[in-house]
Amino acid sequence: MLKDLQEGGIIYVTDLTRITRSTQNLFELIDLYEIKKASLKSLKDTWLDLSEDNPYSQFLITVIAGVNQLERDFIRMRQRKGMELAKKEGKFKGRLKNYHKNHAGMILQ
Questions:
Q1: Based on the structure, what is the number of domains in the chain?
Q2: CATH code at 78?
Q3: What whole-number distance in Å separates Cα of residue 40 and Cα of residue 11?
């Protein structure tokens, strides 16, 4: 999609959190859109409209991107803590391995 993006094109996203996984990547994409003279609009985040040179939209995207990053970091932190607790209780053994020495169909020589 980015390769075919043309001047004046508009990229619609359902939600700002769905377009990238990091604040850095979001700003890199926005820079790319600006270079290609395209814009970004969100269906959920109606305030997000980068089709015009609007300092308010730039400010809001910076703040919301930071909040989204913070939320992702908290999720990862809680996930790590939950995994550590489950390991201590013997409930978490990690991801199941697809292939092991007793796997059906495996021929070991």
A1: 1
A2: 3.40.50.1390
A3: 5
pTM over 0.90, yes/no: no
What DSSP letter does each residue of 45-105 carry, written as one string? Answer: -TT-BTTS--HHHHHHHHHHHHHHHHHHHHHHHHHHHHHHHHHHTT----SPPS--TT-TT
8 A C-beta contact, residue 23 and residue 69: yes
Confirm whether 54 is domain-assigned: yes
Q: Is residue 108 assigned to a domain?
A: no
Tens of pLDDT, residues 34-82: 888 888 888 888 877 777 777 888 888 889 889 988 998 999 999 999 9
Domain residues for the domain of 15 are 10-88
Q: Is residue 99 part of a domain?
A: no
Nearest to 58 by CA among 78, 74, 34, 37: 34
